[in-house]
Amino acid sequence: MSRPRLPAIDVMRGFVMILMTVDHASETWNHGRLLTDSTLMYKPGTALPVAQFLTRWVTHLCAPTFVLLAGAALALSTDSRARRGDTPGAIDRHLAIRGALLVALDPLWMSPVMLTPGRFLFQVLYALGASFLFMIPLRRLPDRALLAFGLGVALLDEPLLSALTALGWRRTPPVALLFGPGFFADRHLIIAYPALPWLAIMCVGWVLGRKLSAWPEGERDRIAARTLAAWGSGLLLLFFIVRGANGFGNMSLLREDGSLVQWLHTSKYPPSVSYDALELGLASLVLAGLFRVTERRPGFAAPVRTLGQVALFYYLLHIHLMALVAVLTGTRERLGVGAAWLGAAGALVALALPCAWYARYKAAHPGGWRQYV
Predict the structure, then answer these.
(1) Residues 299 and 4: beta-carbon distance below 8 Å
(2) Which residues contact 130 (CB under 8 A, 6 or more apart)?
(3) Rounded to an integer, what is the distance from CA 325 to the centroid of its chain?
(4) Which phi and psi (to 5°) does residue 120 adopt?
(5) Residue 5, pLDDT score
(6) How far is it, in rounded angstroms, from Cα 228 to Cα 213?
(7) Interval 35-79: pLDDT, tens
(8) How many whole angstroms separate alpha carbon 128 and alpha carbon 209?
(9) Could you report the per-residue pLDDT of 100-153, keeping only the tens digit for each?
(10) Other Cβ atoms closer than 10 A to 372
(11) Which stretches does DSSP call E strand in 76-147?
(12) How many CB atoms sit inside 10 A of residue 34's CB?
């Protein structure tokens, strides 16, 4: 028998989808949008206006949190399938189909709108899909081994990239798909989210999902809140140590002074140890609070929870909607930072009813193609 969905996870996923919308609205309308989250894109000494920087920075929470929660949700659903009697082979096929679909959606559905026809972008859906495929064998590892693997990959990506650079292999698509981002074929192929650093986060999320499935239902929310609060505090301490030392763990995107902006200016492409520690530390603390709140009030933030339940459905529509509005109004990349927030609010309002309808439809018609979207 399967357990019901966990409200805290759905609310958290909905919350980061809202923040993600701000970033994509900024990309659509904000002429001054900053994209300096990597040594590939940042020249030391470049000005980082506070309003633009913070509008970008608050959205850094989205990708690592979403990947973490995807791993947790996947572990929970896999456990549920096993309880229903699905064979290991059937579970593997489900993961393979989901993974392959997500990988395909980036070049086929997202790229024509986010770039121009004939150019291809591999970003978060690719990273998620590739991670699902890697989890087919990795899910068989014990919790401690899987956690050690995930943490090890996160720590070793930086020295591995350095070694691959020294060997002259860094600027090749296979290396970019796995280890570090890159631009290829005169920017007709852009790999923004290499699989392995994001797989590391999914492994941690999978272990969290296993624990959520194993903890006694009556005590689960309280145990989860305590565990996540401890993890979050430890990760933030790690962030301060790594960012303060200003050396290894920052993917060469170092602090140039002691300002808050420079402390927060971490590498997302690829994710550095300081980036992972900061964002997952914050995410863990927020999620710990949500487990406490939803334990007492299961209906807390119902609209946000609904968005979290249909996150992929929303993701596949919101960028297309904003791009259409920008083209029809002639405002693409012609407005200011305020457009990021106003445009995001407009997209969320416009898609609220379709998301609510799809959530009801999916609940009433489980299985089939709906389990993949």
Answers:
(1) no
(2) 99, 103, 177, 195, 198, 199
(3) 25
(4) -130, 135
(5) 81
(6) 15
(7) 999 999 999 999 999 999 999 999 999 999 999 999 999 999 999
(8) 16
(9) 999 999 999 999 999 998 999 999 999 999 999 999 999 999 999 999 999 999
(10) 12
(11) 120-122
(12) 22
Helix axes 88-105, 62-84, angle to 10 degrees: 150
Structure tokens at 76: 């929970």
What pairs with residue 249 in β-bridges?
Answer: 247
Buried b (16+ CB within 10 A) or exposed e, 157-182: bbebbeebeeeeebeeeebbbbbbbb
Q: Helix H segments across 108-142? A: 111-114, 124-138
Say how far apart CA 252 and CA 268 lie, in whole Å. Answer: 12
Tokens linked to 1? 């028998």
Between CA 343 and CA 322 the distance in angstroms is 8
How many Cβ atoms are within 10 Å of 334's Cβ, its own excluded? 12
Domain definitions of the chain by residue range: 7-372
Can you list the pairs that 167-175 forms with residues at least 24 positions away whose Cβ atoms lie under 8 Å? none
Task: Specify the pTM.
Answer: 0.96
- 206/198 Cα distance (integer angstroms): 12
Question: Could you say which residues of the chain have pLDDT below 70?
Answer: 1-4
* Structure confidence at residue 366 (pLDDT): 86
What φ, ψ does residue 190 adopt, rounded to 5°?
-120, 120
Q: How far is CA 338 from CA 51, 73, 261, 342, 355, in A?
A: 9, 34, 19, 6, 25
Query: CA-CA distance, 274 to 253, in Å (whole number)?
Result: 10
**Angle CA 169–196–283, to nearest 5:** 135
Phi, psi of 248 (to 5 degrees): -55, 145
Enumerate residues 6+ apart whose C-beta is below 8 A from 367: none
Residues listed for the chain: 373
Contact (CB, 8 A) for 268 and 34: no
- Phi-psi region at 330: left, alpha or beta (left = phi > 0; alpha = psi -120 to 50): left
Q: Could you give the angle at the alpha carbon of 141 between the alpha carbons of 140 and 142, nearest 5°?
A: 120
Give the pLDDT confidence score for residue 198 in this predicted structure. Answer: 98
Token readout for 268 is 């997302």
